[in-house]
């Protein structure tokens, strides 16, 4: 799994063609991409890491609190383009990204794992839809992580 985590003041996703909207206040916007080799272990590790990551300021202005600590919210959006390869040519290749038959169940498991770790519902997008995502990045703080690169 490849993840981009953005600390936000607020974030939202809309799918105008389907009349769908979802928004969160203070918390995290999480963009998630999957590959065929991703496992339940990758999902669990990533969800736990996101919920526990200390990227919110404490009373001394030090990033020492997690999204759980600040009772923040999470909006998780699927984004296969995180696995774009730009090595050859000018048109990115997405061959490494999992196809929907693999990625959809992984995304759903990831949402469930995030909800378990956070202890409350998580906002989500619609897999494969043409989504319009808005955010007010707080900091800005943007973290990239990959479950295959655990050290």
Labels describing this entry:
151 residues; alpha/beta; D-tyrosyl-trna(Tyr) Deacylase, Chain: A; six-stranded mixed beta sheet; two-stranded antiparallel ribbon; 2 helices
Structure commentary:
By secondary structure, the protein is α/β, with parallel strands linked by helices. It has one domain (2-145): D-tyrosyl-trna(Tyr) Deacylase, Chain: A (3-Layer(bba) Sandwich), CATH 3.50.80.10. It is built from two helices and eight strands; from the N terminus they run βββαβββαββ. It has helices at residues 40-52, 100-118, and strands spanning 2-15, 20-24, 27-33, 56-57, 63-65, 73-78, 123-124, 132-146. Strands 1, 2, 3, 6, 7 and 8 form a six-stranded mixed sheet that branches. Strands 4-5 form a two-stranded antiparallel ribbon. A hairpin with a 5-residue loop joins strand 4 (56-57) and strand 5 (63-65). Helix 1 (40-52) packs parallel to helix 2 (100-118). It is globular, with a radius of gyration of 15 Å. The two termini are 15 Å apart. The model has no long low-confidence stretch (mean pLDDT 96).
């Amino acid at each position: 799994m490849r993840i981009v985590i953005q600390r936000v003041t607020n974030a939202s996703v809309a799918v105008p063609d389907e009349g769908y909207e979802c928004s969160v206040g203070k918390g995290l916007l999480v963009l998630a991409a999957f590959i065929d080799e991703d496992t339940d272990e990758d999902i669990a590790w990533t969800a736990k890491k996101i919920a526990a990551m200390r990227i919110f300021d404490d009373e001394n202005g030090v990033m020492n609190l997690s999204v759980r600590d600040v009772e923040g919210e999470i909006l998780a959006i699927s984004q296969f383009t995180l696995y774009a390869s730009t090595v050859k040519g000018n048109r990115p290749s997405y061959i490494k990204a999992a196809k929907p038959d693999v990625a959809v169940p992984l995304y759903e498991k990831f949402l469930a794992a995030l909800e378990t770790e956070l202890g409350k519902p998580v906002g989500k997008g619609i897999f494969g839809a043409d989504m319009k995502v808005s955010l007010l990045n707080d900091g800005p703080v943007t973290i990239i992580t990959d479950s295959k690169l655990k050290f």
